[in-house]
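Subject: Sanity check before I submit

Could someone independently write out the structure tokens for this chain? I want to compare against mine line by line before I put it in a report. The sequence has 322 residues.
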Amino acid sequence: MASVLNEAYFHDEAAAFERLEAIVWPNGPVCPHCGSVGKFYALEGVRTKPSKKNPEGVVRYGLKKCAACRGQFTARKGTVFEDSHVPLTLWFQAVYLMCSSKKGVSANQLHRTLGVTLQTAWFMGHRIREAMRSSDLSPMGSAGAIVEVDETYIGRRKGAVAKKGGAGHKNPVLTLVERGVKARSFHVEKARKSEIMPIVRENLSHEARVMTDESGIYNELHKAVASHKTVDHHREEWAYTDRKSGERVHTNTVEGYYSIFKRGMIGIYQHCSEKHLHRYLAEFDFRYSNRKALGVDDVMRAMLAIEGIKGKRLTYRIPVQG
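---
Independent answer below. Compare away.
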């Protein structure tokens, strides 16, 4: 079987722009300046200004001019790729690497593999995570689906002091997993009822059948959903079959999600600042919600991530490692 990386858009800039245009403009080019559809003409052979690195300039692939407002644009405009000097072929490679690696790819690995600077690799990673961020905020658990809810802790909060036997110095993470469907995670300030319950209520359907551990955070959750069942880990209860409904009651699915998340954060990324934790959560949510078990292969997952580039920009001036 031929390598996926043999596809033209991974090594030919013109082919990469054709691929991007098909994703960004499925119904034909749209001017980002005035919104005109189909009123454009291609500008061939245009180059950037000469520089010391490129004395003859660089060919501007995919450049178009709007016949209505006379503005110039490419398919990068209005996406996370905008204003990037990195070739589009390398962007496609980076997206594929991050989407095909179950536990993620570090900035150092992107730096070595793509041949870009470490700072550029770090920035590319965060832009791709922004593209992975889901805009779907529909309630989970519709039509009586089972949703597991749990919290975990990762990393170290800024300025927090570690105390023996406690997790107050770590970053709390809340995750909802709809069995067999998707995951949705949140970085919260503290794992307490006043912060967690509003998020849980907002993201759950009234029809949802919810399963959690014995935490008192959720002791009033039954008022907002169809049913709420718990497992008591303090009594070493991990799963059981409910006699009335026949449901398997457990939180093993969300704990399995955390297993992958922590292995990635500790083994691959090793360090994550509190400021950027929400982006890493979006990355792991995206891969989990578009996994092979749901019929999404690596190429499809990468294309879904690229579809998410539209309307998202990151403009960090001085990136901070983490």
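---
OP: Matches mine. For the report I'm noting this point. DSSP finds eight helices and ten strands in the chain.
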